[in-house]
UniProtKB/TrEMBL annotation:
The lineage of its organism: Bacteria, Pseudomonadati, Pseudomonadota, Alphaproteobacteria, Sphingomonadales. This is MFS transporter. It comes from Novosphingobium tardum. The chain crosses the membrane at residues 50-71, 83-104, 116-140, 152-173, 179-197, 233-256, 268-290, 302-322, 342-366, 387-405, 411-429. InterPro entries: MFS, MFS_trans_sf. It is a multi-pass membrane protein.
């Protein structure tokens, strides 16, 4: 029996895996239902659509930047399983608000949409960002506490793959079901997530409780400074941050790119996100097989360079795409019958597979390089830096759109950032070899 199969059947891992899977599913069902509805049913301007998509991403990311230090302190100094139960209970209330916003968007188009529905949806999205901020450090930090040392990489890979399988499922539903069904679905999923979270075994703190620092700016600066002095952790965090900045730029561009460049429907925009999610899941599992359970950055530079090349290929296909101005938007069947659809989707899949292979070992670095009593705070510091980088990526996308840079040309920004990630990955592997 493989390590991964063994873990999936273990109570040390399965409840956490299911809880994380349902949370990621709900995030993406809600966010994509909201963004796709607004992009395809409200706006008719490429710049306005890209701007709203970027704003939605920024609203979700902001809590990671502001609250991660507090979340990391809580996770290291309190029982992680208890925090999971509290966070998942809050998700039910959040999704009641978000579901109400989706229903108002569907049935009160006009004044009600701008004055009430969109603010309600963005409020719920921000609250889900808060929810994920407090859950994020736990889902990785709890692994070294519940798993054996030779199981941590496999557990990290399964969590990452499960996350993207959940993103896949949420994205598919968001693109295919009516928005009113999405409103019901997010509430039901929140209830299921609360039930799964109650099954996570206790994970008491490994250090004595210490006073909490509730000064958000001071605690964030101190946490990042205390974490970044470790060279391998610093390099891993910086490499992950560039990866998620690239991901943020790509995810922001998918809906407006599908609509305005490819003349494709929201189902095709959803298909892009599905292919991306499948690819990251494949990459996450593949790197575990290549490394045979050893936490190493050996393949990081090669992986992210391949990711950059696939982004360039994706850009080139978009430039060659022949649009259908004035006609109906292509559905999935019409899209896949286009001559350039196959190379476009294969390029996108390549981006995601290479990205998954790049990022999974780096997360494992963060949980195995530091003492178990500090893992949650290390992940929290990573989240602060990641979210700051992603906000910068979102602002860049908004700025480039305002400067009338087309969405396909913005893809080249992601390709350029891959070079920086490859350099950081190489430095990390060198530091790994020196420490061996």
């Amino acid at each position: 029996m493989t390590t991964s199969t063994h873990l999936v059947h273990s109570r040390r891992f399965l409840p956490l895996f299911v809880t994380q899977l349902l949370g990621a599913f709900n995030d993406n069902l809600f966010k994509n239902a909201m963004v796709l509805y607004v992009v395809y049913s409200v706006y008719s301007s490429e710049a306005a659509e890209a701007k709203f998509s970027a704003i939605a991403s920024g609203v979700f990311i902001l809590p990671f930047f502001v609250l991660s230090a507090l979340a990391g302190q809580l996770a290291d100094m309190r029982d992680k399983a208890r925090i999971i139960r509290i966070v998942k209970a809050c998700e039910i209330g959040i999704m009641l608000v978000g579901g109400a916003g989706l229903l108002l968007a569907r049935y009160r188009y006009g004044l009600g949409l701008d004055a009430l529905a969109i603010p309600l949806m963005l409020t719920a999205l921000f609250a889900m960002g808060v929810h994920s901020t407090f859950f994020g450090p736990i889902k990785y930090a709890i692994l070294p506490q519940h798993l054996h040392e030779d199981e941590v990489l496999a557990g990290t890979g399964l969590v990452e793959a499960g996350t993207y399988i959940a993103i896949l499922a949420g994205t598919i539903l968001a693109g295919w079901i009516p928005v009113e069904w999405a409103a019901i679905g997010v509430v039901v999923t929140a209830v299921l997530g609360w039930f799964a979270g109650r099954q996570v075994p206790p994970a008491p703190p490994l250090i004595d409780a210490q006073p909490m620092d509730f000064h958000l700016v001071r605690s964030s600066i101190r946490l990042v400074a205390d974490t970044m002095h470790h060279r391998r952790v610093f390099l891993a965090i910086m490499a992950i941050s560039f990866f998620w900045t690239i991901g943020a730029v790509l995810f922001i561009q998918f809906p407006p790119l599908a609509k305005n460049v490819l003349d494709a429907s929201k189902e095709v925009a959803s298909l892009f996100l599905v292919v991306f999610s499948v690819g990251v899941a494949i990459g996450s599992m593949s790197i575990n097989a290549l490394l045979k359970g050893t936490v190493s950055a050996r393949y990081a530079p090669f992986s992210v360079i391949m990711m950059g090349l696939f982004i360039v290929a994706f850009y080139a296909v978009c430039r060659l795409w022949t649009g259908h101005p004035g006609g109906a938007l292509l559905d999935v069947a019409g899209f896949v019958s286009e001559p350039l659809a196959a190379p476009l989707l294969l390029s996108l899949l390549g981006i995601a597979v290479a990205g998954g292979m790049f990022v999974v070992p780096l997360y494992a670095f963060l949980t195995t390089t530091v003492p178990k009593s500090q893992t949650a705070r290390t992940i929290a510091a990573n989240n602060i830096v990641n979210s700051g980088a992603m906000v910068i990526g979102s602002l860049l996308a908004v700025g480039l759109s305002a400067a009338h840079v087309t969405v396909q040309d913005q893809l080249l920004l992601g390709a350029a950032m891959c070079l920086v990630s490859a350099w950081l990955g190489r430095l990390l592997f060198q530091a790994e070899c020196e420490a061996a």
